[in-house]
Each structure stands twice: as structure tokens, then as C-alpha cells.
Amino acid sequence: MKVEPIIQVEQLTKKYKRAKEPSVNGISFSVHPGEFFAFLGPNGAGKTTTISILTTTLSKTSGVVKIAGADLETDARKVRQQIGILFQNPSLDYELTAEENIRLHVSIYGIYPYRPLYRMMPKAYKERVAELAKMVGLKDELFKKLKTFSGGMKRKLEIIRSLMHNPKILFLDEPTQGLDAESRRSLWEYLQHIRQKENITIFLTTHYLEEAEGADRVCIINKGKIALAGTPEEIKNHLLVKKTMNLDAANRKQLIEELATNFCDYEEWEHGVKVYYDQKTPHGLLQHIKTPLTKLEIRVPSLEEAYVDLIKMQEGDKQYVGN
């Protein structure tokens, strides 16, 4: 049975007044329910414009966008009911407690009527807050003021706010911007847990390419157009990002002779010999090497390398069009 996309974008275009070229130029893509979808692109590529349109904060020039079955143009209110958003720049009141920030948010968005005290809020509100606070590890900090919170804790509070209305899609716009490495890792652990428990579709934009490495699919936009789309592995294979092994031996000359005899693509450098291989695993190549090795390092190419290569190629006007 075919599952309908939860996000469907067809020929989306946005052209600002006085601009020579559209910021977003007829792009099309889809996102499946429950998918972890990464939307990447350099500054000025049209990434922020696209996510602003999808989250109803910016109008489009033309094209069709459907979110969870609702048309963006004719039913924007229903679209907003289906999405949660974690903005790049936090919008929190540091003089309020975590719970007061949540209470103010749900009243502004019409999820629950505002009450001046927590004890006056409906039972459903209290249960949802408690459930999400426990899930992200803020249960003991709910009634503390935000000015005592770390950057990671503030981000977790924003996750609670964005999930209060049980959205089907969570838009993450640079969610770990400004966080240290430990806070970034912790936040992603909670996000993945929430994704599984709540069965939420995640739509991510990020400058940290390693965060997109675990995505189900990646879509790269550049100069307002889709440059390439697919799984991280498909993108790396499409761009022929080379897998390498770093080898060395006490008798490096003999090692190089063996590599040459086996028609290996290699280059010598100060730390040994870098060998390029096409096999899915390096086992087949190593079987042919008889010289005793003093070093063996297998390096798997990253999505970041593929991304950088693609952008460089496009700057040189070599176009890649995704599926």
C-alpha cells in the first residue's frame, strides 16, 4: 500500500521584489511520514526561504505545497496545527520559569486557555508537560527561572513547547547552533528518542553536516535549485567520493611495489601510503598484500566531503540534478 508524503512540494518558487533571480526556483521534493529528512545548502542557497514558506511564515510566489494533506495556500491554519518548530534563535522569556514559558506559548497558540497559575491549568496540560519534561530530562527544572538554564536546557525547553500540540512534523532550523559538543550530542539523543516515541517526521536544516549523516534522506539546495537528493550513501556514491586506506610498512618500498603490481590507485605521503579503493570493503585488496604492515587505517568518506565537493563543482558550473 502506497503511503502518501507528509510533505509534498511541487515547483515551489519565491522571487522577492527587485531581485533579478528567484531565491527559490521551481523546486520539487517530498518527505515521507516518520522520516528524518535533512535539507542542506550554503548561505544564500534558498534554504531559509524554503523552510520559512513550509512553516507558513513567508508567502510563496508560485507552486504547490501540501503539509499532512493540507494545502499551504488555502488551509495555512491546519498546516500550523500539524507542525512544531525549533527556530535557530530562541524566543524565550528568561524572567519566567520553564513552565511559565510553556503556559504562555500554549495560550498564544490557542492550544489551552491561559490561566495565571499552574494549578489552574487543565489536567491534560499538566500531564503533557510532565510527560515531555521527563522525556527530555527537564522534570526537576520545570519551575526554575530560565536565567539559570544552560544553552542545552533552553533548547530542551523549546522542544517541549514545540511538541505540546502533538504535531506530526518537527521543523528543526539549526537546532544546535551555539551549543557545545556535549550539549549537541545530548540534544540529539533526546530528539531521536522523541522521534521514535512520538512517531514524528523530522525536517532538519543544519550547518553541522555530521548531524545529517544519520538522516534517512538528504536534499541539497544550491542557487535556488535542488542540486542532489537521496540517502547519504547514494549522494556519496553519486559524487564518487573515494574511500581510502592509510597503510605503511617498515619496508615501504616493497609495499608500494605490491600496490603497483595489483593496479591500485595510491599516493605516498609523509605518514605512509594513501590507497583508494572501490570495493564495499577493503578486505579484497588487503588479501593481495603480503608485506607486513605497521599501519592500517580505514577511512569512510563523510557526507560533509560529498557536500563540499558538490558545492565546489556547482561553483564551477558543473550541474548535478537529484532524482
UniProtKB/TrEMBL annotation:
Pfam families: ABC_tran. Keywords: ATP-binding, Nucleotide-binding, Transport. GO terms for molecular function: ATP binding; ATP hydrolysis activity. InterPro entries: AAA+_ATPase, ABC_transporter-like_ATP-bd, ABC_transporter-like_CS, ABC_transporter_ATP-binding, P-loop_NTPase. Gene3D superfamilies: P-loop containing nucleotide triphosphate hydrolases. Residues 7-248 form the ABC transporter domain. SUPFAM superfamilies: P-loop containing nucleoside triphosphate hydrolases. PANTHER family: ABC TRANSPORTER ATP-BINDING PROTEIN, ABC TRANSPORTER ATP-BINDING PROTEIN NATA. Belongs to the ABC transporter superfamily. This is ATP-binding cassette domain-containing protein.
